[in-house]
Amino acid sequence: MEKLVHGTHQFRTGVFLAKLPLVRQTLAEGQRPLAMMITCSDSRVDPEALTQADPGELFVLRNAGNIVPPFGATRGGEAATVEYAVNVLGVRDLIVCGHSHCGAMQALVNPATVDPRTAVGRWLEHAEATRQILWAKYPHLDGEPLVDRAVRENVLVQLGHLGTHPAVAAGLARRELRLHGWVLCLDTGTVDAFDPGRGRFVPLNGDAGPGVLPPPFAPLPLTAGEVGGRDLQPA
Hints:
Elements: H1 2-16, H2 20-29, E1 35-40, H3 47-51, E2 58-63, H4 78-88, E3 93-99, H5 103-109, H6 119-123, H7 128-137, H8 143-162, H9 166-173, E4 178-184, E5 191-195, E6 200-203, H10 224-228
Parallel strand pairs: 1-2, 1-3, 3-4
Antiparallel strand pairs: 4-5, 5-6
Helix pairs in contact: 4-9, 5-8, 7-8
């Protein structure tokens, strides 16, 4: 804790004060995030650092496994957070971002390691479609290669769940929303994005300009079978 407490002082003097004009602007005008990111609670994933977002630019929802329960499946805060982002803050780009070495996905592919009566076991039920897809498509894999496929399949499954939320479904119907599926590699710091035109994840290269970015994920919602039909190997 001592390191973290010291960090709060460094934050104020070295980071916050430098961005104080921007913070004051968001306080006066209200926040208008450029995007919402739904990502994992893993302590090695830093959404703002990953995107180099300034205060007010990224609306973040974090939980174990970057899971989005289908609308009505739970009374958790995910539905309210998504609804607020879209209907109140006017967010138009929604990102589901998974990552390599994900503990939730490791548990998913090794169900014997998780007691289904625990909160974690019940939470992972919202990724059951991911597990079923893995059994159907990758019976020859195990270990880290299977976890890697689980991470990618789960991003697409959760994007499908996201499309069941009324605010998102309405925004997609009006062609006002764009959904994106990302996977962060913790070993290299690179990001792959799902390209629906090619049906696979490809490197996300923001330095080369918007012309090389994969198109947003569409259409939605998808059934588990349609998600499982994708080729999820990176380019």
